[in-house]
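Form 7-S
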Amino acid sequence: MYDVIIIGAGPAGISASLYAKRANKSVLVIYHGESQLEKAHAIDNYYGFPEGITGTELYENGIAQAKALGVEVKNEEALHIEMNAEMCFDVTTTDGKYTGEALILSTGNKKIRPNIKGVEAFEGKGVSYCAICDGFFYRKKSVAVIGGGDYALSEAGDLENIVSELTVLTNGKPAPDNERYKFIETPIKEIKGEERVSAVVFEDGSELEVSGVFIAEGVAGGADFAKKIGIATDGDSIKTDARMLTNVPGVFACGNVTGGLLQVCKAVYEGAEAGLSAVNYLKTKKEK
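Output:
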């Protein structure tokens, strides 16, 4: 059991970890994949670096600083989050399961909408981004999950006992070594239908009749996790108050996942605020 679990190791997540750890809390940071910060060739508008610094350097320095302070940092892909009976948060990753009394989402703002004709047009009309949220509406129906990674397989797992037929579409990528599900590797041309989704059309002209399509390409972003545990969102951004608290007690969000100014300075500030708010939440919870 950790006091605070943070998903994301960019400036927001690491800043949150530093403040929580300095308050003598046990802190776990989970991260996976490339950070947006790493893609920045040069950062020359951030305080304290007159000659600038590369995004990769700043990113790696942050993680090293957290580790030096005693923060536990794990490079694992977070797949699933749920609140347990003790009002704590269970985080399942590719390598294990961890529980925290407070949760901070700082995954960045990942755009997961694939460039497939029909995806945007049928959002809410057969195209969904959350199996736990919408799977019930497709009970005893045929559905497809688009994606081929661990996140897609996790979404498939949430659907398999609800729907009548499930197919995982890797959209041109090799299917994983998994005998549990049916896979189609053929590239997708479009998702079609009239008022609602009726089929997925592939580049070779073949079609798969489905009532619903669940998008799960790449890794889960903050908004994906938010929807699964009832956190309010505004499009791809998580809604918070000034203390970075979401509408779910014990869950905080910071950095690009909250929208607004997508800059390191904002991420660092919001991370510090989220870390301090999580510490205050734990104190208040203990006093009750």
